[in-house]
Design goal:
single chain; alpha/beta; 3 helices; 18% strand; Oye-like; NADH:flavin oxidoreductase/NADH oxidase N-terminal domain-containing protein; FMN binding
Length: 121
């Protein structure tokens, strides 16, 4: 059997119209490549996720939803327009390669650092 014939590499429809080009799901990996001052995704984030777009679905790394929700340096965020603009570049790059992407929303809760990590670093 040729690799292309494996069910793993066939499309999958979820719901009525959410079609994945294959059944490979790229799970979240912490990359710590976001802008250290603004926490916005950078061109390096865009390139990284674009390179992963061969998977049917990408789940992004943990992405903070507030200033108080960070647990480590370099983690991305999504709570300002700059963050949204950075993520739009990522999404557009993945879609251009035929991939789908979902954002993992995240808050560290009690494990968050008591200071803003921007102040710490």
């Amino acid at each position: 059997m040729a690799t292309a014939d494996y069910k793993l590499f066939t499309p999958l429809t979820l719901g009525n119209d959410f079609v994945l080009k294959n059944r490979v799901v790229f799970s979240p990996l912490t990359r710590a490549r976001s802008n250290p001052k603004t926490r916005a995704p950078t061109d390096l984030n865009t390139l990284y996720y674009e390179q992963c777009a061969g998977a049917g679905l990408i789940v992004t790394e943990a992405t903070a939803i507030s200033e108080q929700g960070f647990g480590w340096f370099g983690a991305p965020a999504l709570y300002t327009q700059e963050h949204a603009d950075g993520w739009k570049k990522v999404v557009d790059a993945v879609h251009a390669k035929g991939g789908k992407i979902v954002l993992q929303l995240w808050h560290m809760g009690r494990q968050s650092h008591s200071l803003s990590l921007i102040e710490v670093y």
